[in-house]
Specification:
By secondary structure, this protein is α/β, with parallel strands linked by helices. It is built from 35 helices and 10 strands.
């Protein structure tokens, strides 16, 4: 059939043979049935018969266009033809087809109304309103845009009332405008719409909005919020109090309105001024001075500051500031009491952070063992119920950080319980998640002899072949990022000193240096100079070096970040996708693995969970570079044994995670590979 661009007697638009047969039958017999029905109707004159036959052709064209554009399923053909036929008699008898249109899907109703057969039906105007309402119901995020284009729609008031409860944030935005829809919203008599409209007209409306649900229910007034609005401490405290209240209601299966707005405002206020202040004083040795701004806050308020500021907080701000002060402020420093007081809100993120900063063992020891076991089981459960993989990655990362073998066994057992349940219920997403975690966790036990790469179909994680890092000229290109603060300048000098020997040649230039091997495999390290960061000269040097490498077709396969954690986002922004090995020398760099893997999906990453140290970074980098120069593969287990012997007395080395123990990164790689394989199989079956 020409309808699927194949000149034969079959309509085969899908890979499903059974569905194709049904569609072919509908297209041949169904269409012929309608044609015969039209031709046999003696009450239709010739013009009307032509109208219905032409309309049928238009309906089929609408179906083909819709299905090809993915706005309509191919399986909709039989019901579309049935609907077309059902509407013929009422249209013939000059009756409205609105009852018919109301019973059809949006797509079918829309196609029918765009044909000559029903576009001028006596009830066409009402039918279009019905179809528009169905569109707004199906594409909920577009409903307010539709109303802004058609504020006169008869269902506008009732739909605004629904949207106020479903998406108050968007309604607030539209209510603040100066157009017909905004006027209509402000005139809506619904009590909630009135509260949102009033806020939208106030200069302080955005600061009031996070408290919408409690204001609407009379638990707090706008004046109560306005009284604390100009006081950062009191406003933050009110945000936390509201977040705990909402979290408690959510546990009771009640979902407060505008929770997203509350979370966003809470994060913004926690970061600025509080986290930014303690981060900015990272060079101040007097902790009383550095953490003075935290004095007014309760354990619960400090807890929220940590979890909502996860991506901003420095390692020392968490380890030396927020975490210990939580226990200092509690009369009885019990960790389960802390979680109960915050209604377990964000508890998975808290556990993940504690694991990443090596405080999880301490946290779990602050509660009864039985409660710790219940908590960690809850941490592992339900990983398939969220749209993202964040919770699963957190579990993977946390497992590698736990020193208590009892807790490790508990997590592994719970993963296996969830895997068995997922397989029993044919839950594919859960099966994939828990099967990957199970393999990764078992591989941590060397006695199991599990080859993660082979089992999960991902690139080798124990080894990076030397040849895989070479370009077509046989060179290994390394790019190292330095920053122009005082520490960066000191570290840069140490870097040059460590390579000042006969095996390497240092070539200086105005904005960067190149350090090239003089024997063995050609390895060239390009490092920007740490020029004055207050004038942005270090950023310019990096950008110019980026341009130089690009112009010379030099693609770095090894990238090294040197500098504090607050410089890491800048390095990530410039990270070349060619990088296969990435060494992160900053504090808490382990927190940024997900961002890095989005740019370099198969990269092997070395990162510290806590404090990055030049005393670790210098010998580690030099050992790796020497290994590459000598033509050796990067065998991470062996390299780690060598480094452990060199750095065994440096306790900070224990916080550096090599690629083969980087379970979060491995999970992301393995899960994505699993999905790609499944999609490939699906395509091959089409």
């Amino acid at each position: 059939m020409q309808s699927d661009k194949t000149d034969d007697t079959l309509f085969t638009p899908t890979s499903n043979e059974i569905l194709n047969k049904e569609l072919t039958d509908a297209l041949v017999n169904g269409v012929n049935d309608i044609k015969n029905f039209i031709e046999a109707d003696n009450q239709l004159d010739n013009n009307n018969k032509i109208k219905f036959l032409r309309g049928l052709n238009e309906a089929l064209l609408g179906y083909l266009n819709g299905s090809r554009n993915d706005s309509l399923h191919y399986s909709e053909l039989p019901p579309l033809l049935a609907a077309y036929k059902q509407c013929i008699i009422p249209e013939r008898d000059n009756e409205s087809v609105e009852n018919n249109i109301a019973s059809y899907s949006y797509e079918i109703g829309n196609i029918l109304l765009h044909t000559v057969a029903y576009g001028s039906n006596i009830g066409a105007e009402r039918c279009r309103d019905i179809v528009m309402l169905k569109y707004c119901d199906k594409y909920k995020q577009k409903a307010l845009y539709v109303l802004s284009q058609h504020p006169e729609l008869p269902f506008a008031d009732s739909l605004v009332t629904v949207i106020a409860r479903r998406d108050p944030e968007s309604l607030y935005t539209y209510a603040a405008a100066s157009n017909q829809l905004a006027t209509k919203i402000r005139q809506n008599p619904d009590a909630l719409v009135q509260v949102i409209s009033k806020m939208s007209q106030m200069k302080t409306g955005r600061q009031l909005f996070p408290f919408l649900d409690n204001i609407y229910h009379g638990k707090i007034s706008m004046d109560d919020v306005n009284k604390v609005m100009d006081d950062d401490v009191r406003y933050y405290k009110l945000l936390v109090q509201t977040a705990i209240d909402y979290a408690d209601r959510k546990r009771m299966k009640d979902t407060p309105m505008a929770m997203e707005g509350l979370d966003a405002k809470l994060q913004k206020k926690a970061i600025d001024p509080f986290i930014n202040t303690i981060n900015g004083l990272h060079d101040v040795s007097d902790e009383k001075v550095r953490f003075k701004i935290l004095e007014p806050f309760s354990p619960e308020e400090l807890y929220y500051m940590a979890v909502v500021g996860e991506e901003t907080i420095y390692t020392s701000s968490y380890v030396k500031g927020i975490y210990p002060r939580i226990w200092q402020r509690m009369k009885t420093p019990k960790s389960d009491s802390l979680l109960m007081s915050v209604k377990f809100n964000h508890f998975k993120k808290w556990i993940k952070m504690a694991a990443n900063y090596n405080t999880l063992d301490d946290f779990l020891k602050r509660m009864d063992q039985s409660n710790a076991q219940v908590l960690m089981k809850a941490f592992v459960n339900g990983l398939d119920r969220t749209e993202s993989l964040e919770d699963a990655v957190d579990v993977a990362n946390s497992y590698a950080s736990i020193k208590d073998e009892t807790i490790q066994r508990l997590i592994l057992n719970q993963v296996q319980v969830n895997l068995q349940q997922a397989q029993h219920t044919n839950n594919q997403r859960a099966t994939d998640i828990y099967s990957v975690l199970n393999t990764l966790f078992l591989s941590m036990d060397s006695s199991k002899n599990i080859d993660v790469s082979q089992m999960l179909g991902i690139p080798p994680v124990y080894l990076m072949p030397n040849r895989s890092l070479r370009d077509t000229s046989g060179r290994i290109i390394v790019q190292q990022f330095f920053y122009g603060d005082k520490d960066g300048q000191t570290v840069f000098g140490g870097f040059l000193n460590s390579f000042s020997n006969a095996n390497w040649k240092i070539t200086p230039s105005a904005e960067w240096v190149s350090v090239a091997s003089t024997k063995g495999v050609p390895v060239v390290i390009y490092a920007n100079r740490p020029l004055d960061e207050t004038k942005g000269l270090d950023a310019k040097a990096q950008a110019d070096l980026d341009d130089y490498l690009y112009d010379k077709d030099l693609a770095p396969t090894v990238v090294i970040h040197r500098g504090h954690s607050y410089w890491l986002p800048s390095t990530i922004d410039q990270l070349p996708s060619s990088a296969e090995v990435i060494l992160l020398g900053s504090c808490g760099a382990y927190q940024s693995l997900d961002k890095i893997l989005k740019i370099c999906p198969s990269a092997q990453i070395v990162a510290s969970k806590q404090t990055g140290s030049g005393l670790v970074n210098h010998p580690m980098i030099y050992t790796i570079m020497e290994s590459l120069r000598q033509g050796n593969d990067l065998n991470w287990p062996q390299l780690w044994k060598v480094l452990s012997a060199k750095l065994g007395n440096n306790e900070l080395f224990d916080d550096y995670i090599p690629p083969h123990k980087n379970l979060g990164a491995l999970f992301i790689m393995a899960y994505k590979k699993m999905q790609e394989k499944r999609e490939s199989v699906a395509v091959s079956l089409k």
